[in-house]
Amino acid sequence: MSFDIGTARYFHPVGTDGEICRAHSRAALATKAAAVALRRGLDDGLTEDQLLECVAEAREGVPAPLPSVETRAAVRAALRAPLTRDADPQDVADAVFEMLPDTPLRVEGPGGRVFFLVPIAAT
Q1: Overall domain count for the chain
Q2: What CA–CA distance (Å, rounded) separates 102 from 69?
Q3: Does residue 95 belong to any structural domain of this protein?
Q4: For 17, left (φ over 0), alpha (ψ -120 to 50), or beta?
Q5: Which range marks the domain in which residue 89 is found?
Q6: Amino acid 117: pLDDT
Q7: Separation of alpha carbons 83 and 11, rounded Å
Q8: pLDDT tens per residue across span 25-59
Q9: Does residue 54 contact residue 33 with C-beta atoms inside 8 Å?
Q10: Would you say the C-alpha torsion 17, 21, 22, 27 has a positive or negative sign?
Q11: Tens digits of residue pLDDT in 47-94
């Protein structure tokens, strides 16, 4: 088994529930697309065309159908303003549990470095 989180196919064992696999793959793609968007200076207000361009780049040119409504929402959510150390603890808890099962959470760490917390089901 590979430890690359790129897609559920290479991470979870054969027979894993389809919902878990779809959520995993959506979270991985949304994280990559959101990272592309941030490098381009975009935020959650990006246009639909910009979002699709970021997803296409994240897929590294591999032909695929248009992303689902859920994937598009996960990308936009990942581009919201990041949580910081100064965030209210209840806001942090709400953000963590609202992101499940398939939406990356953007946080700002020491020195302003941005990270994505990516939900990957363990069971």
Answers
A1: 1
A2: 13
A3: yes
A4: beta
A5: 8-117
A6: 94
A7: 28
A8: 999 999 999 999 999 999 999 999 999 999 999 99
A9: yes
A10: positive
A11: 999 999 999 999 988 888 899 999 999 999 999 999 999 999 999 999
Tell me what pLDDT residue 8 has. Answer: 77
Mean pLDDT of the chain: 90
**Which ranges constitute the DSSP H helices of the chain?**
18-39, 48-58, 69-78, 89-99
Which residues have a Cβ under 8 Å from the Cβ of 68 and sit 6 or more positions away?
A: 26
Q: Look at residue 1 and tell me if it is in a domain.
A: no
86 within domain boundaries: yes
Residue 78 within a domain: yes
Tokens representing 62 are 């591999």
| The pLDDT of residue 7 | 72
